[in-house]
Amino acid sequence: MIDVIVTSKCREAEGICSFELTAADQRPLPAFSAGSHVDVHLPGGLVRQYSLCNHPEERHRYLLGVLLDPASRGGSQAMHEQVEEGSRLRISEPRNLFPLVHEAAYSMLFAGGIGITPILCMAERLAQIGAAFELHYCGRSAERMAFIERIRSSAFADCVHVHIDDGEAGQHLEAARVLSAPSSDSHLYVCGPNGFMEHVLGTAREQGWADAQLHREYFAAAAATTEAGGFEVQLASSGQCFQVPAERSVAEVLLEAGIDIPLSCEQGICGTCITRVLEGEPEHHDMFMTDAEKARNDQFTPCCSRAKSARLVLDL
């Protein structure tokens, strides 16, 4: 864990604030790569993940961009209402679950709204190493698009295409045209609202992009659809069995029983709680694992996923 001080809090756009963090002991912060995030421990015991959006060569600060989500589960509300310049926070070291493929011949970056945070860091890195790329930044209105002036004054401004929903029709994103005729050594990265991401990814697949070329990071899980019902989990190490009712998660049941399960996002986004499944068939609700990983049915996320079989035997 790292103790940091909020040295700056700035309004970047409607509903979006940036937070500059520096080490409380004034030492250089751990290095990070483009696409990384940190876990931020917030007042009230909440832990939330926020992408780093400053240049990955910087060690004197981390910069976060946080949208005040109307459907906030408490994290973004705490950041906006309780965290101020001078506040002291604890964060994790950076982790990267959304890395660049540096050997790509061409990179296509797509950001929707607050999804610009990891994408901006990627653009900074690609521009630094002289890689070929383009960035498509989409927003509902110009007033809601953070870091737009930073982007327009950047060294890679010529690689950026801005698409605004309430702007002129000629500048709207034509995903099918932009994603047509992909080369096998190109890679696509997308972050933003779930509907935006599914549109970009679905269009890419229709245009012939392979799944291995598609990279995404979700900020929120989609609403789970499942038939209500309980099931049983068994711990392989002890043989203990626990009933998981329809209204509770596996993680909640195990934590209540004193079984240690590392948790962070609690939505199946971050992958922190992934647990091996030795027997049984999981019902996957996470947005972290790939379709191929889910098809193997040898691991699942106990924070949100459930079971299709009557019992799951876990490697715990």
Keywords:
Oxidoreductase, about 15% helix, globular, 3 domains, about 325 residues, 2Fe-2S_ferredoxin-type, 5-stranded parallel β-sheet, alpha/beta, flavoprotein, Rossmann fold, Ubiquitin-like (UB roll), oxidoreductase activity, Elongation Factor Tu (Ef-tu), domain 3, iron-sulfur
Briefly characterize the structure.
This protein is an alpha/beta fold and 316 residues long. Helices cover 17% and strands 31% of the residues. It has helices spanning 75-81, 116-128, 148-152, 175-178, 194-206, 250-256, 291-296; strands at 2-13, 16-23, 36-41, 47-51, 62-67, 88-91, 95-96, 106-112, 133-139, 160-164, 186-192, 214-218, 231-235, 241-244, 275-279, 282-283, 299-300, 306-307, 311-314.
